[in-house]
Amino acid sequence: MSPFWLSLWVASIALVIVILSGLAVCYWMNRCKWGGIAILDALITLPLVLPPVVVGFALLMVFTPGYAFGAWLEAHGMSVVFAASGAVIASSVIAFPLFYQTVRSALQSVDHNMEDVARTLGASELRIFFTISVPLAWKGILTGSILAFCRAMGEFGATILIAGNIPRVTRTMPLAIYSYVEAGQYMDAFELVIYICVLTLALLSGIHLITKGSLFRHTDNN
C-alpha cells in the first residue's frame, strides 16, 4: 500500500477503536462515584502529554514477543511488532485521549435535567446515555472523532518504535516523509506534506461548518 492509503487505512481502523472504547470509557467515567477518579482521568490522558516515543516504548514492552503478553500473542499466531496492526494500536493509543477529553467535556455540558426526567420514567442508564446524552453531545463527539482521526493519521513517534518503517507494510505518510527527507528526496516529501495539510484542513473546515463555528464549544446542543 502507498503511504497515503496506508495512513487512511490505519487512521480509519484506529478511529473505530477509539470511538467504541472512548464512548464506553466516557459512559463509565461520567457515572463513576469513585473518589480516585481524578487519578484515573490523569492516567487516561497521559498519552496526550507524554512524548509519543515514550508511549511507543511502553507499547513495545507490552507487545514484544519476549515478554508475557507478546509471547501469548505470538503463540496464538498474532503479530503486532513490525506489523500494520502495531501502527493501528499506536495510533489508537495516541488519539484516544484527545477523543476522550473532547467527548467527556461535551457529555458533561448536556442538560442533566433531561436525563433526570428519563430516570423518573424508568429508563436505564445505558438507554439514557445512548438516546439522550449522546444525541445532545453530537457536536463534541463529531469534533472528537475528527480530531482523533487527524491525530492518528499524523502519528509518528510511537508508530516507528512498535511498527517500524517498513515500505508497503507500516510506512505511513509521516514515516514516508521522514524517509524521503533522510534520503534527500525533498520533492517527494513535500508532496506528502501537501496531502496531509490539505486533507487535515478539509476535515477541520468541514467540522467547523457543520458545528456552525462551535468547534470547541459544546454548550449549544440544539
From TrEMBL:
<feature type="transmembrane region" description="Helical">
    <location>
        <begin position="6"/>
        <end position="28"/>
    </location>
</feature>
<dbReference type="InterPro" id="IPR011867">
    <property type="entry name" value="ModB_ABC"/>
</dbReference>
<comment type="similarity">
    <text>Belongs to the binding-protein-dependent transport system permease family. CysTW subfamily.</text>
</comment>
<keyword id="KW-0812">Transmembrane</keyword>
<feature type="transmembrane region" description="Helical">
    <location>
        <begin position="40"/>
        <end position="63"/>
    </location>
</feature>
<protein>
    <recommendedName>
        <fullName>Molybdenum transport system permease</fullName>
    </recommendedName>
</protein>
<keyword id="KW-1003">Cell membrane</keyword>
<dbReference type="GO" id="GO:0005886">
    <property type="term" value="C:plasma membrane"/>
</dbReference>
<feature type="transmembrane region" description="Helical">
    <location>
        <begin position="128"/>
        <end position="149"/>
    </location>
</feature>
<keyword id="KW-0813">Transport</keyword>
<keyword id="KW-0472">Membrane</keyword>
<feature type="transmembrane region" description="Helical">
    <location>
        <begin position="75"/>
        <end position="100"/>
    </location>
</feature>
<dbReference type="GO" id="GO:0015098">
    <property type="term" value="F:molybdate ion transmembrane transporter activity"/>
</dbReference>
<comment type="subunit">
    <text>The complex is composed of two ATP-binding proteins (CysA), two transmembrane proteins (CysT and CysW) and a solute-binding protein (CysP).</text>
</comment>
<feature type="transmembrane region" description="Helical">
    <location>
        <begin position="192"/>
        <end position="210"/>
    </location>
</feature>
<dbReference type="InterPro" id="IPR005667">
    <property type="entry name" value="Sulph_transpt2"/>
</dbReference>
<dbReference type="InterPro" id="IPR035906">
    <property type="entry name" value="MetI-like_sf"/>
</dbReference>
<comment type="function">
    <text>Part of the binding-protein-dependent transport system for molybdenum; probably responsible for the translocation of the substrate across the membrane.</text>
</comment>
<dbReference type="Pfam" id="PF00528">
    <property type="entry name" value="BPD_transp_1"/>
</dbReference>
<comment type="function">
    <text>Part of the ABC transporter complex CysAWTP (TC 3.A.1.6.1) involved in sulfate/thiosulfate import. Probably responsible for the translocation of the substrate across the membrane.</text>
</comment>
<feature type="domain" description="ABC transmembrane type-1">
    <location>
        <begin position="4"/>
        <end position="205"/>
    </location>
</feature>
<dbReference type="InterPro" id="IPR000515">
    <property type="entry name" value="MetI-like"/>
</dbReference>
<keyword id="KW-0764">Sulfate transport</keyword>
<dbReference type="GO" id="GO:0015419">
    <property type="term" value="F:ABC-type sulfate transporter activity"/>
</dbReference>
<keyword id="KW-1133">Transmembrane helix</keyword>
<keyword id="KW-0500">Molybdenum</keyword>
